[in-house]
Each structure stands twice: as structure tokens, then as C-alpha cells.
Design brief:
The protein is of the alpha/beta class. The chain is built from 6 helices and 5 strands. It folds into 2 domains: 33 residues; 96 residues, 3-Layer(aba) Sandwich (Oxidized Rhodanese, domain 1). It has a 5-stranded parallel sheet. The longest helix is centred in the N-terminal third of the chain and has 30 residues.
Length: 144
């Protein structure tokens, strides 16, 4: 068998191996961009809700929360919500809840969906997230 024929044979055998990672990346991208049908609010709407007693839930990890968060927010990371809403948060079931992540689209919508599904029907996602809140000049706190 000539060298050219051998190379064509190997190329045909290797093509499926090259296509598999591309398909895997597409599937992972679609899973990461899943959209949730939740109510979104901007910074001004969130501020009004908070001023009227809404609970505020930060769904980022503790390092991000400790760096900066909305004053009065409680930390319930998305991974915790995926396992179930903590019993300590059950008192907020009938009140408005403002949920936020870092940018408003990474984990906030999923967390809001999880809360809505668990009966927290007044939970909304802060669409611009912590970044938008801070950029709008709203107060931020640091530490626990």
C-alpha cells in the first residue's frame, strides 16, 4: 500500500474521533445556556422590592459573596438549591425574593426557577446580577 493510500485510510478512520469532541462541546454549550422561564427585574425594580421587605438571595459561591454582596443578602449557593431549599429559608416562601448571581445569567435564572418550583412563586432574578447592581452605584457589603 502506498504512503498516500495509507494516509487517506487513516484520515477516514480518525474523522469520527475528531468529530466527537466538537459534538460534545456543542452539547455542553447548549446545557450551559439553558433558558429558564422566570421573572427578571432590573436594579431599580429590585431596589423597590428590597425596600419593601423582599428577601435577597445570593447564589454565588462564598468567596464571591465575601468579596461583595447586596447588604442583607443571605448566601444560598446554587449547588445547595439544587439539593433542596434549606429549611431555614422556609419563612420567605410567601414573600418576594430577589435572587442574584454575578452577572444575572450564569446561575441566577436557574436558582430562581428552583425556588419557583419549590413554591417560592414571588422569586425574581436580578437580571444584571451583582455586577449590574454595583455598576448602578447601589450599596454593596463585604465579608459575612
Amino acid at each position: 500500500m502506498s504512503n498516500v493510500a495509507f494516509n487517506k485510510f487513516n484520515a477516514r478512520r480518525l474523522l469520527p474521533l475528531a468529530v466527537f469532541p466538537v459534538i460534545a462541546l456543542i452539547v455542553m454549550y447548549q446545557a450551559s445556556t439553558r433558558s429558564y422561564d422566570v421573572a427578571n427585574v432590573g436594579v431599580d425594580e429590585a431596589r423597590v422590592l428590597i425596600d419593601h421587605g423582599a428577601a435577597v438571595v445570593d447564589v454565588r459561591e462564598s468567596d464571591a459573596f465575601n468579596t461583595r454582596h447586596i447588604p442583607g443578602a443571605i448566601l444560598i449557593p446554587l449547588e445547595v438549591l439544587r439539593a433542596g431549599v434549606p429549611a431555614s429559608f422556609s419563612a420567605a416562601k410567601d414573600q418576594p425574593v430577589v435572587v442574584y448571581c454575578g452577572d444575572g445569567v450564569t446561575s441566577g435564572p436557574e436558582a430562581t426557577h428552583l425556588l419557583n418550583t419549590a413554591g417560592y412563586t414571588k422569586a425574581v432574578n436580578l437580571e444584571p446580577g451583582m455586577a449590574g447592581w454595583a455598576t448602578a452605584g447601589r450599596p454593596v457589603a463585604s465579608g459575612r
